[in-house]
Amino acid sequence: MEMKLLPIETAPKDGTYILLFGDSGYITTPLRCCVGHWDYDYRPLDPWRKHDNSSFEDDGEPPIFWMPLPKLLKGEKSCL
Question: What is the pLDDT along the chain (80 residues), one digit of tens a residue?
Fold first, then answer.
């Protein structure tokens, strides 16, 4: 299965954890990535929340792409 970056406008806004991608500010590594989810109640002006409960925008610009989390292999347990 091919996985590709999707526009952030198409990301789920139901609390589902996904991979978030945003500009890093560096030439050598143009994107930064983290696990996160949409939480409008947390911060209405920047609702993308990282797995550690901080805002994605605390590290820079808002996310511009997203991707679903990879499926777990048989027998693996999620840490989320």
Answer: 567 999 999 999 999 999 999 998 888 888 999 999 999 998 888 899 999 989 999 888 999 999 999 886 666 666 65
For residue 34, give the nearest of 10, 11, 67, 2 by alpha carbon: 67
Secondary structure (DSSP) of 22-66: EE-S-SSS-EEEEEEEE-TTT-TTS-EEETTSSBGGGGSSPP-EE
- Are residues 20 and 62 in contact, defined by beta-carbon separation less than 8 angstroms? no
Beta bridge partners of 22: 32
Domain ranges of the chain: 6-68
| pTM of the predicted protein model | 0.83
Burial tier of 32 (Cβ tally within 10 Å: 0-12, 13-18, 19+)? middle
